[in-house]
Design a protein that fits this description.
Elements (H helix, E strand, L loop, with lengths): L1 E5 L45 H5 L3 E2 L35 E12 L5 E11 L2 H7 L1 E7 L3 E11 L5 E3 L5 E5 L1 H5 L2 E3 L1 E7 L8 E10 L9 E4 L6 E12 L5 E3 L6 E5 L2 E10 L8 H11 L7 E4 L4 H12 L7 H10 L6 H15 L1 E2 L1 E3 L10 H7 L1 E2 L1 H14 L5 E5 L17 E6 L10 E3 L19 E5 L5 E5 L9 E10 L5 E10 L1 H12 L5 H11 L5 H12 L2
Parallel strand pairs: 3-13, 9-19, 18-20
Antiparallel strand pairs: 1-27, 2-5, 3-4, 4-11, 5-10, 6-7, 6-11, 8-10, 12-17, 13-16, 14-17, 15-16, 21-22, 21-24, 22-23, 24-25, 26-27
């Protein structure tokens, strides 16, 4: 519960890490302008939908005037060595750029190794198109992959061709590792395209080679066609060993399956000839993003045959990491001293891991999925979602309580038809209890750091999750559709009206539910000396002004 209580002072009880999440009270008589964050955001060591293109290792392009990198699929069929003739003027003449051809070809081997070839041809029409395509970004996973940029060239209207030299290629840390608390082997090769201007044709080709598969003997991939702007011809081809059973899902209308030289080849085509958006599409996307209901990838393929196989793989990755050590048992005994009730122990240990351990994403190689040992997390005092879950599970195990791991996707609903590690980007805890163990189960997510016990952010609610209670007990379960806390906001005003008509009042604002968590996260990130001003600004935005603020406004108007 979050409370705003204004009478000229600030109370920070229950905000200090380690205290209960029963309430948060703020008191202030001064106001400043401060923008309220409308949404909690956090990075995950698994990859969210925003980072799909890293996992897919597709080419992305950087918008030079933006503050963030937009990873987009830029793949085309093999370009001609000489400039193609300019097409007749069409409805796409007003577009910043038109992707004329895209092609990506992926070939998997039985041992999990793979190669990817991507070729692209783009006609740049405006200065905005130059900004969009003038700096190319080729993401790759340095621990398991290499990337080779075969060529980047520009065909001019006068028939000349400019080749971008190798010196223009820079090897950098991935954007996500520079903008978030996230450390990874994700890297990007950036290419500043030489001589690109309006009316030019850009062509490039790159190859990725995976020689150290994360799971030897297994492979999977996801692909999303280019749904923004105009695409004349986009093609995807995925080749697997002929005898290998795989799960495949993609647009059936354009899918073909052929065989060649010991391989089975799945192929799809795509085009988008109109760039106009449907009314309300942007708002719809914002809503889907906030609720974790974005559309799944257009194409998915996996060598895993069922969810039990995926679950056994992850269970074996983490089962030894949760075993309590002497240090874990000592910490559990310290935190639960004097407690005899399991419910009290559960809440105490959850509060300790949730509030005392900073979230820092760590993803190197198999570390994208495998957590650190609980003893290491205890010592480090930080971890990502899977690390914090592992520490909590280990402490609870030392206390005689079993918490199971649950894999879930925070961006879109799990597709039950294609069992794959790529369908997950987050780990939470599952604790069965009560007569109906599934219905009465408690779900715990320690990632947010300030969430009340049993709280899940909206994008994790009413979602399928893969729960593992052993290597032979694996099932898909559904998270609760509603928060355990009601969304309520109560204002309590106690004041008096003076002879001059001025109202002096003490106002208390008590908030529970999703907004409470948003406010808690905001206060946690703000330095404590700023809490008073932050609370006063939040109160000002509520429309209830204190007498000082009212008088200041009256004086300001009288001076005009």
């Amino acid at each position: 519960m979050r409370r705003r209580d204004y009478a000229g002072s600030l109370s920070s009880r229950n905000l200090t890490p380690g205290n209960s999440f029963s309430q948060l009270t703020l008191r202030s008589a001064n106001a400043v302008r401060l923008t309220r964050h409308s949404q909690i955001s956090f990075s995950l060591a698994f990859f969210s939908r925003n980072n799909d293109k890293y996992r897919q290792t597709m080419i992305s392009r950087r918008r030079a005037l933006c503050l963030t990198v937009v990873l987009a699929v830029l793949v085309t069929s093999r370009a001609q060595t000489s400039p193609p003739p300019a097409p007749a003027k069409d409805d796409s003449s007003h577009e910043a750029a038109v992707i004329e051809e895209m092609s990506t070809k992926i070939a998997f081997e039985n041992d999990g190794n793979s190669t990817r070839e991507q070729i692209s041809r783009v006609r740049v029409r405006t200065d905005a198109g130059v900004q969009q395509w003038g700096l190319l970004s080729f993401p790759f996973q340095s621990a398991t992959q290499t990337v080779e940029i075969d060529y980047v060239r520009v065909h001019k209207a006068d028939g000349s061709t400019l080749i971008t030299p190798p010196d223009n290629v820079q090897d950098l840390d991935a954007e996500i590792t520079r903008s978030a608390r996230f450390y990874s082997d994700l890297r990007e090769k950036h290419v500043a395209v030489k001589g690109l201007g309006k009316g030019d044709i850009l062509e490039y080709e790159a190859h990725w080679h995976t020689t150290k598969p994360l799971i030897p003997g297994q492979f999977w991939s996801q692909y999303t066609f280019h749904h923004e702007g105009i695409v004349l011809d986009e093609r995807l081809e995925i080749k697997v060993p002929l005898e290998r059973a795989v799960k495949v899902k993609g647009p059936q209308a354009t899918q073909t399956v052929t065989t060649e030289e010991g391989s089975r080849v799945y192929a799809w085509t795509y085009s988008k000839l109109q760039s106009a958006k449907e009314p309300g599409s942007d708002q719809k996307k914002q809503t889907e993003t906030a609720r974790g209901l974005l559309p799944p990838p257009d194409v998915q393929i996996s060598s895993f045959q069922d969810w039990e196989e995926v679950g056994r793989w992850y269970w074996n990755l983490q089962k030894d990491r949760i075993e309590p050590t002497a240090a874990i048992r000592a910490k559990e005994a310290e935190l639960t001293k004097g407690m005899t009730d399991d419910a009290a122990k559960l809440r105490a240990l959850y509060s300790f891991v949730s509030t005392q351990y900073r979230y820092i994403g760590i993803a190197f190689g198999i570390g994208r999925y495998q957590p650190h040992a609980a003893d290491d997390v205890l010592t480090n005092n930080y971890g990502d979602c899977k690390d914090k879950h592992t520490l909590l599970a280990s402490l609870l195990q030392a206390s005689g309580i079993t918490l199971y791991p649950a894999l879930i996707n925070s961006s879109w609903e799990l597709d039950p038809d294609v069992p794959s590690p790529a369908q997950f980007d987050h780990v939470i805890g599952y604790l069965p209890q009560g007569k109906d163990k599934d219905k009465d189960a408690v779900w715990l997510d320690t990632t947010i750091e300030v969430a009340p016990f049993g709280y899940l952010v909206p994008r994790l609610r009413d979602k399928s999750a893969l729960v593992m209670s052993g290597d032979k007990s694996i099932q898909l379960a559904t998270t609760p559709a509603d928060s355990p806390l009601p969304n309520t906001q109560v204002f309590k005003i106690d004041g008096k009206l003076g002879n001059d008509g001025a109202l002096e009042a003490r106002v208390e604002d008590t908030t529970r539910g999703d907004l409470e968590v948003v406010m808690r996260a905001a206060f946690r990130q703000a330095p404590q000396p700023q809490w008073k001003d932050f609370g006063a600004a939040d109160f000002l935005r509520s429309g209830l002004l204190g007498h000082r603020e009212r008088r200041q406004r009256e004086h300001a108007r009288s001076d005009q």
